[in-house]
Amino acid sequence: MKNKQGVLIVNLGTPSAATPEAIRSYLTEFLLDRHVVDLPAFIWYPILKYLVLPKRVPYIINHYQKIWINEESPLLHYSKRLMNQLQQALPDIQCELAMTYGEPGLQSALNNLKSCEKITLFPLFPQYSTTTTQAALDKVKQLIRDCAFKINYIRDYADDESYIDALYSQVQQAFSTQGQPDVLLLSYHGIPQRYIDKRQDDYVQRCQLTTKLLIKKCQDNGIDLPIKMAYQSKFGKGKWVEPNTSDILENLAKTGTEHVHVICPGFSADCIETLYEIDEQNREIFLNAGGKQFYYIPALNDTPLQMELIKNILQKPRSSTFLTN
Q1: Which residues of 196-228 are buried (b: 16+ CB within 10 A; e: fewer)?
Q2: What pTM did the predictor assign?
Q3: Domain CATH code at residue 67
Q4: What CA–CA distance (Å, rounded) separates 49 from 44?
């Protein structure tokens, strides 16, 4: 039976194993993408090969090994489970999962969707950025260049009501089990400031919008506490969007904040940036600076909240935005 509609769920990517070879291979593909690092190749490639990777791979391998789930990265584990649940919830739509970098690959997912007359590309990046969403869109454009695919896409869902409701539910659950903190910190992945200026990337505005709507949702439901936002995962020496998550946590602890919760709204699935960078590295920064209680609120992962918000967005009437070559 011919499938009339298909959905391609795309996440960023992950090493295929917690080994030096797999991590090196993944980081090479990821960091050579001009969407991610826009330095000229003749300058960047030798730096990456001889300076960055030899230092980075040994540093993070133990962190990857500690968070691996059933011989898979958390990001792949949760993304696969989410996709399977989505397929069960939408039996008349063919659902496929792919990563912008690594496996499962975009090409194999598109091959599996060849029988579909209409495909919706759904990048799992709530806030649009040229470094994530556009990287996935451009890669798909290249792969369908000579094909008859008709693909529309979800640009982002930073202000979608279902998404804000899901975040609020995560916050509410954390407060009910861990107690209400002194401060709730929203930590988004950072990007270089020059990308905002040079590419007219509206990523910061989209993060600010999500923060504004989540604050309003909390206030409307009687949750009244300071809610701050910051950016994590700075890489390299250039100027990145601010404020920095680690600096905010350290300053909060030093100025008397004892109890903090951190949620990462831009990460649809837990990964090394949340499970290590936030829940271990930044936890330590906060506690060492004088904080008493730190709780990381997990990503939406494969929860019913995540599945329902994706289903709601897919089923919502909207004007289609099609990929063009």
Answers
A1: beebebbbbebbebbbebbbebbeeeebeeebb
A2: 0.95
A3: 3.40.50.1400
A4: 9
Amino acid at position 216, single letter: K
The reported pLDDT for the residue numbered 150 is: 82
Q: What is the dihedral of CA 81, 83, 84, 85, to 10 degrees?
A: 90
**Strand 5-13 with 293-297, pairing:** unpaired
Kindly state the average pLDDT of the residues 281-293. 98
Which residue, 307, 308, 278, is CA-closest to 294?
278
- For residue 322, is it within any domain? no
User: What token pair was written down for 100?
Assistant: 């912008």
Task: Summarize pLDDT for 259-268 with one digit per residue, the tens.
Answer: 999 999 999 9
The DSSP secondary structure of 159-182, one letter per residue, reads T-HHHHHHHHHHHHHHHHHH---S
Q: Which two tokens stand for residue 157?
A: 């869902």
pLDDT tens digit string along 89-138? Answer: 999 999 999 999 999 999 999 999 999 989 999 999 999 999 999 999 99
Q: How many domains does the chain have?
A: 2
- State the average pLDDT over residues 76-85: 97
Domain span at residue 110 reads 5-157+304-315
Tokens 């989410």, residue? 82
Please provide the size of the chain in residues. 325
The three-state (H, E, C) secondary structure of 246-280, written as one string? HHHHHHHHHCCCCEEEEECCCCCCCCHHHHHHHHH
Domain shared by 274 and 221, yes or no: yes
3-state secondary structure of 119: strand
Q: 221 in helix, strand or coil?
A: coil
Same domain, yes or no: 139 and 270: no
Give me the phi and psi of 72, to 5 degrees please: -135, 155
Residue 299: which region, alpha, beta or left (left: phi > 0; alpha: psi -120 to 50)? beta
Identify whether residues 199 and 75 lie together within a single domain: no
